[in-house]
Design a protein that fits this description.
The protein has five helices and four strands, in the order ββαββαααα. The protein has helices at residues 19-29, 51-57, 62-69, 73-80, 88-98, and strands at residues 4-8, 11-16, 35-36, 43-44. The chain has a two-stranded antiparallel sheet with strand order 1-2. It has a two-stranded antiparallel sheet with strand order 3-4. The longest helix is centred in the first third of the chain and has 11 residues, at 19-29.
Length: 107
């Protein structure tokens, strides 16, 4: 299945792409939006792998975000590089600081 182009008045208006292609585009752009899951009807949290992109997009330095969350900058850097998995309290603090719904237990 490829891209579907939706036309209006003879002009392309929308492009519909497969979900995997959409996720790949978001990853390449360093962005992961909060979207609604059609199955659960609850917000889907961005993966922790998107943390660096979210932080940079909002203009936070590693030092500033770490200070707000209450962790060391080196620990935040390890979380962003995928070397450490933060506990649920740190996930919630990160989400709050970044204005997200939050990473929940098991997310």
């Amino acid at each position: 299945m490829g891209t579907q182009i939706i036309m209006r008045d003879g002009e392309p208006e929308y492009a519909v792409i497969p979900w995997a292609d959409y996720q790949a585009l978001l990853e390449q752009a360093g962005r992961t939006p909060v979207i609604e899951s059609p199955d659960e009807r609850r917000p889907v949290r961005p993966a922790l792998a998107a943390l660096r992109g979210l932080r940079e997009e909002q203009g936070h330095s590693v030092q500033a975000l770490a200070r707000v969350v209450g962790i060391s900058p080196s620990y935040l850097d390890m979380i962003e590089r995928g070397e450490r998995e933060p506990d649920d309290a740190i996930k919630r603090a990160l989400a709050h600081a970044l204005g997200l719904d939050g990473w929940e237990a098991g997310a």
